[in-house]
Amino acid sequence: MRTRASKLFRPLAGLLQALAVLVSGLEIAPGAEPRQAPEYEVKAAWLLNLIRFTDWPALAFSSPDAPFVVGVVGKDPFGPDLEKIVSGKTMNGRSIVVKRLSADQDLKQCHLLFVAASEKRRERDLMDKLKALPILTVGEREDFLDHGGAVQFHLVNDSVRFSVNLFPARSTRLRINANVLRLATSVRGKYD
Length: 192
Hints:
Elements: H1 4-23, E1 26-27, E2 35-36, H2 39-52, E3 54-55, E4 68-73, H3 81-86, E5 90-91, E6 94-101, E7 112-115, H4 123-130, E8 136-139, E9 151-156, E10 159-165, H5 166-171, E11 175-176, H6 178-181, E12 186-188
Parallel strand pairs: 4-6, 4-7, 7-8, 8-9, 10-12
Antiparallel strand pairs: 1-2, 3-11, 5-6, 9-10
């Protein structure tokens, strides 16, 4: 006999399996052989999943129909992969747009900000400027979480993994879904 909880968990289990496939770096098209996805294609897919499974406070948007802005600051490692991944997708009815920005531009317009490794010298200052804003910061440098970033990508056996620092997310009222947190290699902090 199935319980109500197991009926609710079944779709979530499928989603987690799909996320696990992305995390493992495999992309499987119908009728195609599995192939190793390029690193930044996988990272772009993870960004989309972070968008889908993070809640932003209403005050993060200038209007009810404002788009969701993914910013990339620094030397862009994604090429066309990021646009390809988010093309035609929405977040709670909002279109998703990608903007490439410099550290000197207004980053407050972003909801998710990917900080490229090229911003090594400015990373700490960027995190200090953004710490009170509802922006999910994602980076890939080894000490990104130590500088106040929320999500840090890293490679484990050639697969993209991530660690999470809940302190900056929690302080700006962002809430990352617990099922995504379970896929993280490490999580600093917790939600109350």
